[in-house]
Amino acid sequence: MPAKSMTTTSEKLMTGSEIFVQCLIAEGVDVVFGYPGGANIGIYDALHDAVAIKHVLVRHEQGATHAAEGYAKATGKPGVVLVTSGPGATNTVTGIADAFMDSIPIVVFTGQVPLKLIGNDAFQEADIVGITRPITKHNYLVRDIRELAKTIKEAFYIATTGRPGPVLVDLPKDIMAQKTTFEYPQHVELRSYKPIVDVDIMQIMKAVKLINEAKRPVLYVGGGAIQSNASAELKALAEKMQCPVTTTLHGLGSFPEDNPLSMGMLGMHGTWYSNIAVSMCDVLIAVGARFDDRVTGNVNAFASNAKKIHIDIDPACISKNVVADAPIVGDVKNVLTKLMDLVHRVDTHDWLATIEQWKKEHPLRYTHGKEIRSQYVIHKLGEITKGNAILVTDVGQHQMWTAQFFNWIHPRSHITSGGLGTMGFSLPAAMGAAFGRKDLSVISISGDGGIQMNIQELATIVEHKLPLKIFVINNGFLGMVRQWQELFYERRYSQVALRNPDFVKLAEAYGCRAYKVTESSEVEGVVRNAMAYNDGPVFVEFVVAQEDNVFPMMPSGQTVNEMIDTPDPVNKNGQPDHKGLSILEKG
Amino acid sequence: MDNIVSHIQISHRARAQANGEEHFQKHTISILMENNFGAFNRIAGLFAAKGYNIESITVGPTEEKDVSRMTIVTRGDNQVIERIIKQLHKLVDTITVADLTFDSFVERDLILVKVQSTPETRSEIMQIAEIFRAKVVDISPETLTVEATGSQLKVDAIIKMLRPFGIKELARTGRVALKREFQGEV
Q1: Helix A61-75 crosses helix A93-101 at what angle (to 10 degrees)?
Q2: Which one from A137, A153, A173, A307 is the annotated catalytic residue?
Q3: Is residue B9 predicted with pLDDT exceeding 50?
Q4: What are the sequence ranges of the domains in chain B?
Q5: Which residue of A163, A260, B25, B41 sits 20 to 30 Å from the alpha carbon of A142, by its own alpha carbon?
């Protein structure tokens, strides 16, 4: 959040680089993830004296953008990146696209060749403003030093307001060396960008009417509820209505899963009962969610019996994939507060009893014996941490198992690459989260494929002695692709088997404590030890079942009728808990 | 700017239904935008990235300094047009976005046509130009260059009339459009 009473003007002539540093201080930036080079060397010179700003030297610029994303997701504050021109700038592209898809507020500053050389194919020149135009919320090329401070102010404002997203500011080297007086604007006034909307009471009333007549309502909650810090309002509304709640991948943690109204995650690998409930519901209340194809499957069959209420801050999101009967444009927290006063308790007694029965018949479940199953690792991790940790996952099977088997209680406890699905996200994003949140354990979970996509950041993590727990779920495969090849391509395993390095030796070479776990009986002890060690990072490799699959599964583009439930038997002895989890020990 | 977009969407649908409009009709969208570096690219790029079709696009200055008006003619069913308008609205550079299609509006295209002419055909071409209130702006022993403005239909018609003489070159602007001040029934 911008600091209010900071001195933000100076009569003294300052260079662009010095002004840049003053702007960051005025914005309250405490960490910058970056990498120096020829075009931003002047900025690094100015940064050298800035004690208020901690600069983290990453080992690859992609790591910087993911770290900024992790920092932003964990803290709610914008993440900041500073890189040089050309390859430095192009290396940030994947992270920017990732932040764009998942609506994460980051501000990326790129060095640029001097203004008069732009377009000349100068050394380390790339048209990064052109390259990132479709993947940023907005971007700028600063062409006049008098515009610099105003542009930086606008960049932070645009990144953090409305539907958040990445903003890039390109800084030509000669502009940053010129001098002017410094004045940091207190307010941003853009006639073409007014993100704060008053909620239209007519829209609210339409939704209230639908809700109060509902017999089988479902709340479908996405990342917008977390971005808007609306967990308390969501809980109050769900409890007042007695309405079951399902969350998207990014909505995990917005509603506590130990609450009986929780149905866990929905979608392609969501719980059986949440998907069935959505298909049977008569009113679907979408809260800061965007009807992504991984949630809906066949969009025409999705909640086809339901009237749809869609709450979102981005009007362009509403009726994009699914036409809303009652669209509400506004900040989730604000809208839920208004709804709370107007909705009644809906008589959902029978509806909740039906869902409870489904949870018993079709719980999330696994069986396990000596061989480690990934589900067991995640389940144990949930028990040991009691949900009090930040889990940062990568992309693939382990990501889905973590979403399914961890007990999500707190908002901002789950960070992942959802929209873009970026392998290599977890390690740098967890690093960013750890810089932002010293009060919680941060756990990075990757597969053996994804960990190798940004493993260079182990050096950064060791350098800063971050107490990260780095868990690698090693099944020797690109597991999710292998699963699809098994199910849909007749087990023709094309380019999915990985010949991996010795991860323990590799981690140790970086200066990291490392363990390898190969049997179920060792899992709990090693996890407890890892959680207890806080003097630096711990790397744990779990060698798990090779050809394990993620279930339930609603195959891509299909409906709940094609949903494949978990093949493992249901534990008849013990009742599944509220998350609908059942574990069977194999003999 | 309270929920302009949802209002657009509602009035849009209601009117389209009331008029029994064709689903894939042409829409003329008028955009006022900040004359910022890259703003044109951002809007054109949006159409490319989202796969929306552009039939014509024009951009130029307005009465206000720093503000440009862009007029885009596009085609799509109501849902696609709704999406286009919302996406355009979302861009930081756009100040207002209006679909003129269901309003009363004036629209103009401008063409320059270089027509082959002989001493025998010259006066006939000039007569045609006159009927369309077009102007002859250049002349040579073998050609006449005609400037015509008007609605798309009028401009199409003059081209059709001139084609038999042999069109050597043709340049046509995209559509520019403004909403009529009086919208009531006449």
Answers
A1: 30
A2: A173
A3: no
A4: 4-102, 106-179
A5: A163
Residues 148-167 of A with CB under 8 A from B: 158
Specify the 3-state DSSP secondary structure of B168: strand
- Tens digits of residue pLDDT in A13-53: 999 999 999 999 999 999 999 999 999 999 999 999 999 99
- Quote the tokens at residue A245: 């709640």
Mark the ranges of chain A whose per-residue pLDDT is less than 70: 1-8, 573-574, 587
pLDDT at B79: 87
Map out the domains of chain A with their CATH numbers: 9-183 (3.40.50.970), 201-359 (3.40.50.1220), 364-551 (3.40.50.970)
ipTM: 0.85
Residue B20 burial (10 A CB sphere; 0-12, 13-18, 19+): exposed
Burial of A363 (0-12, 13-18, 19+ CB in 10 A): buried
CB contact under 8 A, A130 and B3: no
Report the share of chain A in percent with pLDDT over 70: 98
Evaluate whether A560 touches A275 at the Cβ level (below 8 Å). yes
Six-digit token string for A81: 């990146």
Query: Strand pairing partners for B106?
Result: B178
- Here the tokens at position A379 are 């389940």
* Domain B106-179 class in CATH: alpha beta
Retrieve residue B147's tokens: 């400037």
Are B41 and A133 within 8 A, CB to CB? Answer: yes
Given the residues A6, A54, A116, A123, the one annotated as active site: A123
Count of A-B CB contacts under 8 Å:
63
Task: Tell me if domain B4-102 and domain B106-179 are identical in fold.
Answer: yes
Fold classified for B4-102: Alpha-Beta Plaits (3.30.70)
